[in-house]
Every structure is written in C-alpha cells, then in structure tokens.
Amino acid sequence: MPRTAVILVCLLALVPAAAAPQTPQHDAGGASRSYGFTMHDKLQLPADYPNLPYVNPSAPKGGTLTLGAVGNFDSFNPFIIRGTAASGASRIWDTLLYPSADEAATAYGDLAADVEVAADRSWVAFDLRPEAHFNDATPVTAEDVAWTFNTLRSEGRPFFKLYYGDVKDVTVEGERRVVFHMSSTENREMPLILGELQVLPEHWWKGRDFTAPLTEPPLGSGPYRITQFEFGRGVTYSRVPDYWAANLPIARGLFNIDTIRVEYYRDATVAMEAFKAGQIDFRQENVAKNWATAYDFPAVQRGLVIKREVPEHLPAGMQGFAMNTRRDVFKDPRVREAMDDAFDFQWMNHNLFFDAYSRTKSYFANSDLASYGLPTGAELALLQPFRSQLPPDLFTKPFELPVTDGTGNNRPELMHALDLLRQAGWTVRDRKLVDAEGNQMAFTILLEDPIFERVALPYKASLERLGISVNVRTVDPSEYQHLTDNFDFDMTIAAFPESDWPGDEQRDYWSCAASKEIGSSNMMGICNPVVDALVNRIVDATDYAHLQPAARALDRVLLWNWYVVPQYHSDVFRIAYWDRFGMPDKPIRSGFTLDDWWVDAPHAAATDAAKQSSN
Questions:
Q1: Is CB count within 10 Å lower at the N or C end of the chain?
Q2: Which bin fits 300, alpha (ψ -120 to 50), beta or left (φ > 0)?
C-alpha cells in the first residue's frame, strides 16, 4: 500500500514511451533485483528514467506555502499513540522506496537503490544508496533500517505490529544491505509495505523515550526540516538546501517550495476566514455546502483565488457511522441494520450537500474490487465453506441500501427499522424504544469537528422518531484521538481508505487481533472468523485474479454484517488556492500532490500586490 501523502490532490500522468520498460535482473538463485517494485507485470519506467513523468524537472525552487490545520498538536512523533503529531511531520523522513502517483501499487528506489526479492518470497532485501545520509551528514545505514523496523513494531502504534505481521525478523548484511525474512511466503505486497518504511536515525533516538510525545524537532533524511514551531499554533518546514537526494530521478522536480508553514486554527470556520483573508494559500474543501456557497468572495471574483474541481481515479474506500460492537447496544446485527434504515441519504444529499455525492455501497467503492449482484465463481467458492456462519440473504439477495424519496418523510424505512428492532427484542413503550427491562435504547455519536454536526443532527432526529435517545458530542481532536484509540465511544464517523492493491492494512481494519489492540483502526471491534479468513486470502493473494474475488467476498461479508452506516463519496477533489503557484499540467491517476508545485514568482508578486491593495 503506497505511503500516505501529506496532502493528496489530483491530476493523471502519461508515462513516456521513449524508453522501453526493463525487466528486473535475476541472480543465479532465482531472486529478482530491480530499481523499483510493482504488483503488476513490470515497471513502466526504465532503469535510466530521468525523472517521474508527471513532474516539471525544471521547476524553480523558492517561495513559501502556507497551509491551514484545525485543532492542536503537541508532538513530532507520528508513529505512536501518545500525543497529537504536527501536520506534515512525514516530510522529515525519506523512505526506502518512493510511490509513483501515476502507477498503481508501484514504487521506485529512494533511500534504497535496489530491492531484491527471493524467488519463493521468503525474504526481501534492500541495498541502500551510498550517498544517502541524514541531515546531520551521518550516513543512513542498514542498522538504522533494522532499528526503525524493530522499534515501530515493538513501541509504535499497534498498526505496525499487524502491518508487519508476515515479517519474521530483519538482519543486517553489511553497512548498506538489510534483509527481511518472512514468516509467510504468500504476501506479495510485502516489498511495497517495507519500501514505505520511513527510516529513522538510531543514533539520534538513543537516550530518548520513543513512546513519549516528541517535543523537539527530530532529525530526518528528507527534503524538509522543522525550523520553527509553537505547539498549538503552527510549525514551519524549511527545505533542506543540501538535500542528499535532490538530484536523484525520483526527487527531480519535487519539493520545490522553500518554506511550508502550517497554521493551526481552533475550528474550520476560522480557518476558512483565514483563507479568504490570504493568510492561508491553499485549501482542500471537504464540505459541499461551503463549495457551493462560501467561495463567492472578492478574491475569487477578481481571479486572485483559483477554484477547481480535479477528477480523481482512486478507490474511495468506506466512510460511515461506525458502530462499536464492543457496546451491548450494537452487538445485534439487526440493530445495526436498523441504524442504516434510519439514515436518509437522499434527503441529506439534496438539502445539505447540493447533490454533490454518491452513496457509498462498498468498502472498496470506486474500484473493481467492489462486490455486486450475487456471489458467483471464485468469490462464491471462497464463501461457500462459511455458509453456516453467514447471513442466508448474502447468497440469495444482492446487497442493497435503502433509498428514500428524498422528501424527509422516510416512514417506510423507519417502519422496516422498527421491525428489525422488535426482532432484536426492543419494543416501543410510551414513545420510547425499550428492552425487556424497560431501559430505553440510548447512545452517543462522538465527533471531532463541529462541521460533522450537520450530518449527525438530522440523523439523530431520524433515530429519535424510533424512540431512541441519541446524544451528539463534539470534542477537540486530541480528546477524540484519545477516546477512539481506547475505543471509548458508541458511534462515530470513521473512514477506511483503500488502495488499488489492498493488503496488510486490512488486518488493522477488520481482524480479531486488531479489535483487541489499543489504537488500531478496527473501530467497530470486528472479531469474526470469516472476516479473518478472507483478510488472510487478500494478504496472501498471489495475483490480481486471486485478489479480486477475495476482496469482493470480504466486502460482501462486511456489508451484510452492517458494521457501519455507509455515507457518501465524491469522484473529485475540490481545491482552492491563491494564484501564486505553478504546477504540472499532466493529469495523474491519483490526482495531484503539492510536492510537485512551485511558487511562480511573477504570479505570486502580482497576487500579493493585489491582495495588499485590497486590504
């Protein structure tokens, strides 16, 4: 699964045809060595590629970019549960491989010049570049790689223990060669997973408690370092002038902006006002109402602020109201299905979202891994052994979400919900939904941002028509992280992003082991042997022909167990920015990344002058 970018945005790049792709070299023992790794047949770029095809290799360096963030931060360590890490902290460290934004499940050498994979996939080796060094001029060594891996697995977030679950151990074979040995030879994605490892300097961390929030700027090897910060207010990342990888093909045309400043604001409304005032340069808009109504201000009208919708072509994953099955109220799947009946997407989409969204109907939405119709062929063969453990309807009915008439009068859906709740032992008494002991059904929807209240409050009103007592509680991001890390909530809004080739992250999302790990992504507390078996099928898929039916089967099982109330997704990124920047004009499949933007000096000067004259 590719490394998570600081900010993803959209464009679809063309791979040059000047040089034919080269196949990996093989040694006598059958291992393959290459300058990159892909889950597909071959790398699209040749070994002597000059730069990534979607960047401007001649982009000028310099200038500043100011971004906005909502909430607070008190740490620079994004790898642990404790503390809230500063936005953008991942810019500090380089990875073994760098993911291509134009190729699915593909990455090229960064810290590592080569990746070598055993023919039987029993080990993966990385050979580090001799010129790779941290920003104190200390070489990046195989010892650093091994120490980082072991530390993340033993002291980092529980996610790492699950994510690296197929690795038996790591050994150092020389100053620049590190080898990971597998406990299972079925996981084809492991070279990519290990390639996204952000390598930390062992010498710098000695004497420091890795599990504690980090309150001093860390040493990295990446293109940026922290040069200024004030906890809770902002952090400044400055481009490293002698960045060791600046002239490598993988970095040429990237990391062009000298100074990236992240300003923190107490809520989204204040952040929006800061953007309108020119205190923030770039904004990704996630609220459809804002996009439709909040961008008709003078700077947009004068062309000083550019407003764009950029198509994206990535899997949408799942976002929805996640129900914590660790709570008694959500243990019964009939109750969970009733929660979905009460969600009136059609009314919300028209009245709140300006018809901007599509209903999410799959955990692998917007991809060909999404289930549909009835299970057949290889997917049915995977599900058949578990028939007695699965809802009978899974085999006989296509999965469907309720569709209302959009008027706000969703009585048929609520009647169906009430029937399900009665089957689960709940009855209506004095306009309250109560159990056999007369206790009213009650739960809290936990939110981290007031902006989500406009979704949660209409949902609350619909649930209350069933006689359920619902409380909507909004807390600050730090408290929200603490509560969700410890699974101390009833229902919340959660997102589960997906890649073109899902793998080990599925264990963190859905596995029984993850449900018991504090800080995991298994928000719902799913502990289902069928889910575990299908997750293993995904991780162990030897090719796409095996991956697809496994993903569809898992998708179907998750859907029919009603762990979340699916919400919605869009196929565009909505972005707005002050007209100070240049960017490549080649579209790429993942959208676009700010790392290939640059400050256009003439545009920036003209825009800044116009901004000053209007103040």
A1: C
A2: alpha
Q: 150 is written with which tokens?
A: 């072991």
For the chain, percent helix, then strand, then coil, each to nearest 5?
30, 25, 50
Return the SS3 of 541.
coil
pLDDT tens, position by position, 373-384: 999 999 999 999
For residue 496, the SS3 value is strand
Ordered structural domains, the chain, with CATH: 8-62+76-205 (3.40.190.10), 224-313+596-614 (3.40.190), 318-424+494-567 (3.10.105.10)
Give the chain's residues under pLDDT 50.
1-24, 26, 28
- Phi and psi angles of residue 280, each rounded to the nearest 5 degrees, phi first: -120, 140
Instruction: Tally Cβ neighbours within 10 Å of residue 226.
Output: 19
Distance CA 164, CA 167 (A): 6
547-567 pLDDT tens trace:
999 999 999 999 999 999 999
The string of DSSP letters for 336-368 reads: HHHHHHT--HHHHHHHTSTT--EE---TTBTST
φ/ψ of residue 403, rounded to 5: -120, 115
- Please state, in angstroms and rounded to a whole number, the distance separating the CA atoms of residues 97 and 45: 14
If we measure between CA atoms, which residue out of 6, 597, 482 comes closest to residue 262? Answer: 6
Is residue 167 within 8 Å of residue 191, measured between CB atoms? Answer: no
Longest CA pairwise span in the chain (Å): 79
Instruction: Give the list of residues 6+ apart from residue 481 with CB closer than 8 angstroms, or none.
Output: 84, 448
* Of residues 142, 162, 192, the one with CA closest to residue 39: 192
CA distances from 340 to 323, 344, 462, 523 (A): 11, 9, 11, 17
Residue 77: exposure state from Cβ atoms within 10 A (0-12, 13-18, ≥19): buried
